[in-house]
Amino acid sequence: MCTRLVAAAAAAAALASSGVAAAGAPAPALPPPAGGPSVALGVPWCGHLRNGVPLAPQGADFFTWDMPAHRSPNPQWRRYGTRRLIDVLHGVTSAHRRAHPGRARVGIADLSLPRGGAFGSDYGGLGHLSHQNGLDADVLYPRRDRAEAPPSRPGQIDHAAAQDLVNRFLAAGAQYVFVGVGLGLHGRRDVVQAIPHHLDHMHVRIRGQHAVRSPRSCPWRPM
Questions:
Q1: Closest Cα partner for 71 from 14, 20, 127?
Q2: Apex CA 120: angle with CA 122 and CA 36, to 5°?
Q3: What 8-state DSSP symbol labels residue 34?
Q4: Whole-angstrom Cα distance, residue 144 to residue 155?
Q5: CA R_g for the chain
């Protein structure tokens, strides 16, 4: 029962959606170059990021997408993560493209802010309840028409390609992969979970490599 409660709370913490960008949404100042290993502080729904690493705006295997503004690339300040998260994203998207060379590049939306912390509606759309310590990434479902944009309805999703990405994130050791309700994407029941607001992207969470206590008190606990 405790495991189910923790998983349910983690799913609630992962809720994120896109929408019209908030007027005057602030762009956090970018940090100076990292002086040590990137560290996930606290937990994804109450934490910070030390020495975060920015994901490139695009690469041979992926592009980035700004969900609130509906355009590519995603601003740099929306795509910081731990070094391990960046490595997982590079590894999965590269392997996916090598296995399916005719498919479009994989779309990646929000990670975390430059120093982590709250990533709420002040930054556009409904914001995120998690994405706070560099362990979370939103990955767009591939489209059947191979367009480099999020699907606007489930019928546009290339189901086989989306399931392939889920499988590869599982193989890479993802802690959770949150997917849309009714999409039929599957995997280990304790890892792959269907939750609302995820009909255009999956939410991948990796396990923290250097996670330590949060430097601030959490307003709630996932239990």
A1: 20
A2: 110
A3: P
A4: 8
A5: 16
User: How far is Cα 133 from Cα 118, in angstroms, rounded to an integer?
Assistant: 9
Distance from C-alpha of 174 to C-alpha of 146, rounded to nearest angstrom: 25
In whole angstroms, what is the distance from residue 58 CA to residue 200 CA? 19
Peptide bond into 219 cis (omega under 30): no
Pairing of strands 192-195, 176-180: parallel
When pLDDT is averaged across residues 59-71 and rounded to a whole number, the result is 96
User: What's the token pair of residue 15?
Assistant: 């809720």
Question: Which two structure tokens, joined as six digits, stand for 65?
Answer: 């997408």
pLDDT tens by residue, 146-161: 999 999 999 999 999 9
- The phi, psi pair for 44, rounded to 5°, reads -60, -25
pLDDT in tens, 113-148: 999 999 988 888 778 989 999 999 999 999 999 999
Q: Give dist(CA 206, CA 103) in Å, integer.
A: 25
